[in-house]
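Hi V.,

Quick status before I head out on leave. The structure for the redesign project is tokenized and pasted below; the design run finished overnight.
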């Protein structure tokens, strides 16, 4: 009498369940809708600018979220920087409160960023009218934290696949080879 594969390998079945749960969680993160809008707005702000040694200028931008909850506003009509060559560096997750230095937008000095940032229906324009940053102001790192999140999710998936593969290979080895 042969036993079915399902009952013969409970460890492999657990590994498949762990992998499946991880994939379901990843799918939920990637396809979940934006956070529902609470009462209030998320307003873009410009703090200051800093000249760089290469002749470019970094404009320190931030936001005020007075909704009381973290808001997710994906890049698009409700979260867009113009001209489009600068779009894509802005955050998409906005914690409650005032965040004056959320990110820096670096532009050539000749451009002086005469563009705008529209966020949650409010448009910030002419950020070049802000004053120069005080000496010693450190600019925020690039990105909005999504890069590290994606690295961690990717590492988890690779580890889950490696676990499944190693268990399958271990099962395929003859008893005397181990």
């Amino acid at each position: 009498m042969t036993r079915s594969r399902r009952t013969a390998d409970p460890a492999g079945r657990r590994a498949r369940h762990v992998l499946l749960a991880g994939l379901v969680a990843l799918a939920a993160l990637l396809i979940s809708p934006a956070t529902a809008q609470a009462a209030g707005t998320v307003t873009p702000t410009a703090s200051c600018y800093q000249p760089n040694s290469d002749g470019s200028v970094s404009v320190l931008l931030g936001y005020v979220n007075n909704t009381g909850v973290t808001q997710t506003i994906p890049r698009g009509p409700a979260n867009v920087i113009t001209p489009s060559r600068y779009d894509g560096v802005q955050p998409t997750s906005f914690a409650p409160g005032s965040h004056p230095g959320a990110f820096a937008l670096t532009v050539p000095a000749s451009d002086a960023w005469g563009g705008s940032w529209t966020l949650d229906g409010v448009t910030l324009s002419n950020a070049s009218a802000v004053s120069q940053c005080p000496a010693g102001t450190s600019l925020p790192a690039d990105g909005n934290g999504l890069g590290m999140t994606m690295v961690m999710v990717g590492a988890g998936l690779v580890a889950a696949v490696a676990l499944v593969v190693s268990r399958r290979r271990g099962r395929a080895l003859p008893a005397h080879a181990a």
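Above is the designed sequence. The longest strand covers residues 97-108.

G. will cover questions while I'm gone.

Best,
W.
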